[in-house]
Task: structure prediction
Amino acid sequence: MRLVSSSVRSESSEAPAEGLGGAVSVEGSGAPAEERALARRASRGDTDAFAELVARRTPGVLSFLRRLLGDAEDARDVAQLTFVRVWENLDRYDPAYAFSTWLFRIAGNLAIDALRARGTRQRTEAESFRLVKGARTSAEPDGPALLAEREVRRVFDTCASVLSEKQRLVFVLREFEDKDSREIAQILGCRESTVRNHLFQARRLLRDEIRKCFPEFVAGRKE
Amino acid sequence: MNTRCPESARVRGAVLQLLSEEISSSSLPSLSRELKVHLASCGFCAAEARALDPTLLFVPLSASIASAPPVEEVRRVSNDILAEVRRRSRLAPPAAARPFLSRRFLQVAALVALAAGLFGIEGIRLARRGRAVPPAPVAAAPTPNESPRDASESVRPSARPLIQDLKSPGARVYEFAAVSPKEPSVVFIADPHADL
Result:
């Protein structure tokens, strides 16, 4: 089996996700051509077409925002705002891009605004102190082998506080949403080299933060 | 707790390859979906991978592995979105549904209206000016019994100096009309044959 994939070689924003096994993916529900047609109908005031787009994309957008914002309530609010913005600006949608790319661009920008507005960094830093203490007392001596998703989410929310909003967005889009560098660049409105730089910095910062705050999770195994 | 996995050597090799490609490659290397699924289910390999690259701790959050949001939550959010959109569409349909009221159309219409207004005002002003300038000389010569004063009263409404021919060849009367009836009118008679 191939164990390492490169975004340039293996993925395209046009290609639907493969083999999801029932899990939700932002790219996994529907062909881009169908969504372009739905968007065109919706832009002419067809609310049924828009409802179809909402039904297809709400699960993926909610998951993405939940991972990016680290808060379910904020994720719901931003998801709602995202689709309202989409509805209001359907005449500006460029069919040269996948509808999901445009959707994630709007969602990402609104999420960044939300992160900035609430001063995530300071708040999460304050919370991280409690989380680190809690994690250390509950963790096994050499760390849990398989962490529950909820626990991992808490660790990520804590560690991601050291990232800038864009670093966090790039990391989530690449590592969690499996987007390639070209699509991330389109979503962010920047060059692919900038995306690579954001991702490189994000990984480096997260490694340092995990080693510092959660050493029990990364302890080497004694053979 | 965790027995050694037969895939561990390949997982280790893949993670090391990932780390080296991260520095050297111009692409965005990432673990394959297959490996992520394996790491999410194999505690032994997950611990080894985390020791090499701590960010692999977050593999369970990958969209291809993580659980979907609850159906009830998705339904509630979708309903909220559609209710809000329907409310807004009753107030104003989306921009593309109003081709004749597009922003560009309104901009052009405003410019045309402004230009038409300006030309219209200027045209009216020019027309009034054309009517106000009398052809010279004005055929308002007084009768022999009329004094110059009477002649001037007959044309008082005009604010411009009036030019009148008199019987004396070459003689003319200019009247500067008063602004209000209480003010005296100024009359100027020019006659090259007048004997002063």
Remarks:
- Confidence is low (pLDDT under 50) at residues 6-30, 130-143 of chain A.
- Residues 121 and 162 of chain A are 7 Å apart (CA to CA).
